[in-house]
Write the structure tokens for this entry.
Amino acid sequence: MSLVQRQVMMGIFISLVLFILITTGYLIAFPLSNWSELWERQVLDLPFILSVPSISVAVGIVYGIFSGWVWRKQIHSVDQILHELEEGRPIEAIEPMGLIELESIQHRVLKIQKQMSEQVKLSQRLATEKVVGQEERIQEIISQERNRLARELHDSVSQQLFAASMMMSAINESRPNTEDRETKQLKMVEEMIHQSQLEMRALLLHLRPVALKGKSLQEGMEELLNELSQKVSMTILWKIEEFPLDKGVEDHLFRILQESVSNTLRHAKALKLEVLLIERDDFIILRVVDDGIGFDVEETKAGSYGLQNIYERAVEIGGSIKIISVKNKGTRLEVKIPRMTKGVESND
């Protein structure tokens, strides 16, 4: 039963009580000598027995509809405020509702929204301080070691895989186009080598230094995607807008992108990859979309270190993450970070 219907029923109940009171008072003031007088006496040109109940019910219904409409409007306003709070949007101004109880709820919602905003600011500031405050010497050692491993893998294993891939491709092209067992096995070996190359590129992507090395997030993303587009056969498209960000937020978003692209290379078997970084409605949005084989999000989330790492990084800077994946249709990963500052909050 809706609120308006409930108020109408309440109004009808009140009208019945009003009818009983009016009738009782009337009969006390003007006793009846015969019950037929209820039909003979008139109010507003109608018999008393009809006019009084009709007026009472009409008053009750009007009261119920009006009060129900007023309450529904007030509750809708509270629901709208809670929806804005759930979406993480700033609540600018709230119209006074006229009821002390509802205004108290409004004040509490504003207080909660302020606390959430402060928590997001604190999370982003702590993430920034964590990145900036890391010891330079340790970072330099880690960076050098990762680069050394990446170079060795690229110069040895990666080159050997490339040579093996070229040889297998030449062998398969020189053979007659048949469907015998040996031909299928050679094609399978070529596909395995190709998959190993993708795994190696994903591994080299992981070995890249964590820090952006003085670059902005946008510069680091474009460099990463440019380099990747030259090494893999898939089509890579991106749209990256320029806007300042705190260092900690940049670092986490860059690592989320690395992890997402690495997962695509290793598991998706995709032909196309799209990356989007934009600022809309006080939110920073990072979106990575591929047209690969997809996966079961709920099943994979529990056992995937990569996805868990992405979730933790998004939460650490006060953001949210949504992953939609359809089997044989592709995967879409979207991270939304509330924009609390204009990239200078960490300097206060």
